[in-house]
Design brief:
Blueprint: E1 7-11, H1 15-27, E2 31-35, H2 38-47, E3 52-56, H3 64-73, H4 78-82, E4 88-89
Parallel strand pairs: 1-2, 1-3, 3-4
Helix pairs in contact: 2-3
Amino acid sequence: MTQSAATILIIDDDVHVRELLEVLLQNQGYRTLTAESGELALAMIKRQAPDLILLDIMMPGMDGYEVASQLKAEKNQPHRRRTRRTPTTGRSGRSTTG
C-alpha cells in the first residue's frame, strides 16, 4: 500500500518565493498549496488542513505572527489536530539600505 504525499502550505506575499518553494517541494514528491496572504491562508486551512505550513513573518496586512496566533487559538479545529508544525521564516525581500 502506498502512502500519499504530505501536503505543504506555503504562505508568502512574494510570488517568487512561493514559486521557488513550490517547485523544490514538488520535485521532492510533496503536494503543495500556496497562499499570498494570511487571510487567504486561514480560509484555505479551514477547507483543507495541510501536514506542514511554511509561514513568512514579514507580510503586509496580516503578518505571520498574527496567522500563527490565530492557528494556535483554534486548538479544537480539525486543522489544529492534524497540523502540528508551522516553521516560520523571518527573511524579508525589503532592502535595509537608505
